Amino acid sequence: MAQDxxxxxxxxxxxxVQGIGLLLSGDINAPTLDADTIECTGGRITxxxxxxxxxxxxxxxxxxxxxxxxxxxxxxxxxxxxxxxWTPRQNQIGWIDSCLxxxxxxxxxxxxxxxxxxxxxxxxxKAFAIASQRMFATFRPSGVKIHGGAPVIEHGMVxxxxxxxxxxxxxxxxxxxxxxxxxxxxxxxxxxWARKYGIQSTIHTGGPSIPGSGMIDKDVIxxxxxxxxxxxxxxxxxxxxxxxxxxCENCGRALELVHNGNERAALHxxxxxxxxxxxxxxxxGTDAPAGSGVQPLGILRMIAxxxxxxxxxxxxxxxxxxxxxxxxxxxxxxxxxxxxxxxxVLMDKAQHxxxxxxxxxxxxxxxxxxxxxxxxxxxxxxxxRNTPPASRVPEVVK
Length: 398
Ligand SMILES: [Zn+2]
Hints:
By secondary structure, this protein is of the alpha/beta class. It has 11 helices and 22 strands.
C-alpha cells in the first residue's frame, strides 16, 4: 500500500492522456465532451482537445487510454474516516486504498465519529476536529484526498466556537444529529453560525444508524436548513416516501444518496428529483465505514443502481459523483475543465458484460472495470484489484 505526504505526490511536470474513447465531463449540463486528449501541467488540467493539438516534450509522461472512458475522479460525499487508512468500525486497515481501486479520488468526512473515546465536551470536540483537519490535510492514504475535521455539534456550543473552528481551518460540520443536538431550533442556530464563518453542514436523515444515535425527520431537517441533506435515503433507515418528497420539494439543499442506506428510497428520491428537473442537486456517498461495512465499489454501485433501475442516463449518473458534488461542496476537482485538479478514473466495460460499451453496460446495471486512477496528474493505480476486469486497460507508454 503506497502512502505519501501531500508534499510528495510524485507527479510528472506534464502528463498527456491520449486515446480517450469517451470523455465524461462531470458537468450535468453537458455530460460528455468531444475530445480524446487531456494535457495536465503541475497537477492541473491545462488542455482538452485532440492529440494533434498537443506537442509532446521531453520529460512528459504519456498515458495511452487505449479507447477507455475517462471521468473526473469519483467523489464520495459521505465517509467516516478516523486516522490514516485505519477504521475501528470494522477493524480494517487499507479501506481508503480499496476505494481508490473503485475510482474514488476524493472523500468528504461527515464526522470522525468512530474514533474510540471521541471527545464530546466543547473544548475536546474542537481540538479533535482541528487535529483531524490537520492530519488528513497532511497525510493522504494512497494519495486520496480526504476532507476531514468535521466536528459533531453538541449542546453548549456558542457562536465564538464556530468562529474559532473556522479560523483554525475547519470547513465542515459532521452530521448534525449524531451528537446531542437533535432539535430543529438549536440545529438551525448552530448551522447558521457555521455558515456565517464558511463551514459547510450536513444533517443526518432518517432513523438511528447505530444504537445511541437518533431519529431525524423532515421537520428537523427543514428547520435546521443544513447545506447537505445527508443520506436522504436513510443511513440505514429511511423516512417515509412522503417525507422524502416533501424535502425534495420544499427546500433547495443537496440531496445526498448513500450506498449504506435504503436503495428503494434512493430510487424514490431520484424519481422525485427527475420530476422536479433538479438532478443537479443529487450527490453520492457511501456512508462507510458503517455497520454495513466498507464498500470499495460503493460509488460505482450507486451509479449502476441509479442508471440501471432509476432511469437516469449513465453519463448523467456519473455527474452525481463528480461535478455535482464538486459544485455543491466547492471543490477544485470533479470536472474536466481547464484549471481543475487532474484527478481522473479510466474505465471500460467489464469483460463479458452484455452491454455494447461502457455506458450501455452501466445502463444494464453492470459495474465498469477500472483500469487506472490519476490524482494531481500522477498515476496512482493501474488495473483495479477490486472491480471486474476492464475489457481494455490504459498503458503508461512513456
Ligand atoms: Zn448518518
